[in-house]
């Protein structure tokens, strides 16, 4: 309940408000004394459907004024409305569901939202998640790639009343695609801090877990066409997503070093990647040899098609 300031303070500043709840003329509970800057209060512990009279009187240094009265009958909270703008974003083993809360809270503050994922073929419940307000998204895992599901979303208010359901269209989880090396090349540039010559190895991995691959690239001195690798000249790059993945790209990685820190190539030879390995931690692996990489290229930052073999005199 709320009230406005009285038209007159009786010549002395208001010091408090006294709120009395009556049922059939009898006071219910203790009188409430509120500070002068509190123009509202919430009365609890009343019976739904019973009419009460509420009296509010202002107090000042000389006493308590004539109360203002109003009558009201509390009602039980009803079911909230259904969430709106519900959408799903399926992955390969889970789905992210987003929504907007209902505008009708059923007469009590919304407290949480529940998301159910059900099998589209038999309506069986697969998994569920409940998130507190004002959260408007939930990610649920443990689903099966290639299977079809739908989501049910509903709000619950502070009285524990479950709201109307919003049901999504069916969605099908994707099938994971294995990681694969799509391109690799060497880019000659300069160190931005020292202007010293620098070599960068760039590569791109495609597949479901393209941004989570760790592995190793082995280089050996070969003839200019990549043949006759010299095993004694072997050197390797170890890479992982934290150190080498280029955030914001479509599966691209990079490794860079000053040219002076890379073994020199000899006359008529080039450094060629002779093996490329990678793994995503989920039993998906990549393994390529020289022949598989020989014709690969990748677009470097200068807009050129970089090839995997390079000289470092």
TrEMBL record:
InterPro entries hit by this protein: FN3_dom, FN3_sf, Ig-like_fold, Striated_Muscle_Regulatory
- Pfam families in the record, alphabetically? fn3
**Which N-terminal residues, if any, form the signal peptide?**
none
Q: Which CDD domains match?
A: FN3
Does Hydrolase show up as a keyword for this record? yes
Question: Which portions of the chain have biased composition (kind: Low complexity)?
Answer: 63-84
* Region listing for Disordered, in residue ranges: 63-111
Going by the UniProt record, its keywords in alphabetical order are: Carbohydrate metabolism, Glycosidase, Hydrolase, Polysaccharide degradation, Repeat
Fibronectin type-III domain: from which residue to which, for each copy?
1-78, 79-178
**Matching SUPFAM superfamilies:** Fibronectin type III
User: In which residue ranges is the amino acid composition biased (Polar residues)?
Assistant: 85-101
- What PANTHER family does this protein's entry cite? FIBRONECTIN TYPE-III DOMAIN-CONTAINING PROTEIN, TITIN
What is this protein called in UniProt? Fibronectin type III domain-containing protein
UniProt source species: Streptomyces griseoincarnatus
**Species lineage, top-down?**
Bacteria, Bacillati, Actinomycetota, Actinomycetes, Kitasatosporales
């Amino acid at each position: 309940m709320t009230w406005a300031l009285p038209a007159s303070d009786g010549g002395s500043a208001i010091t408090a408000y006294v709120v009395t709840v009556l049922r059939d003329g009898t006071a219910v509970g203790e009188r409430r004394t509120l500070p002068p800057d509190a123009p509202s209060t919430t009365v609890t512990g009343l019976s739904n459907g019973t009419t009460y009279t509420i009296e509010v009187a202002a107090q000042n240094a000389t006493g308590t004024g004539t109360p203002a009265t109003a009558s009201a009958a509390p009602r039980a909270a009803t079911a909230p409305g259904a969430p709106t703008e519900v959408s799903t974003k399926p992955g390969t083993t889970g789905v992210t569901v987003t929504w907007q809360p209902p505008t009708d809270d059923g007469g009590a503050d919304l407290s949480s939202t529940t998301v159910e994922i059900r099998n589209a073929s038999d309506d069986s419940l697969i998994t569920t998640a409940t998130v507190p307000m004002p959260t408007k998204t939930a990610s649920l895992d443990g689903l099966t790639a290639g299977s079809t599901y739908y989501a049910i979303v509903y709000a619950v208010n502070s009285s524990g009343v479950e709201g109307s359901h919003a049901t999504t269209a069916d969605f099908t989880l994707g099938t994971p695609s294995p990681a694969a090396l799509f391109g690799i090349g060497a880019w000659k540039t300069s160190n931005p801090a020292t202007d010293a010559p620098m070599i960068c190895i760039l590569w791109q991995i495609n597949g479901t877990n393209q941004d989570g691959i760790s592995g190793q690239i082995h280089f050996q001195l070969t003839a200019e066409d990549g043949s006759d690798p010299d095993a004694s000249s072997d050197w390797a790059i170890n890479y992982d997503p934290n150190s080498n993945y280029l955030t914001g790209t479509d599966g691209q990685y990079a490794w860079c070093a000053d040219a002076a820190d890379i073994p020199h190539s000899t006359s008529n030879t080039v450094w060629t990647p002779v093996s490329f390995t990678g793994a995503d931690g989920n039993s998906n692996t990549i393994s390529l040899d020289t022949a598989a990489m020989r014709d690969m290229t990748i677009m470097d930052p200068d807009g050129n098609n970089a090839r995997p073999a390079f000289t470092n005199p």
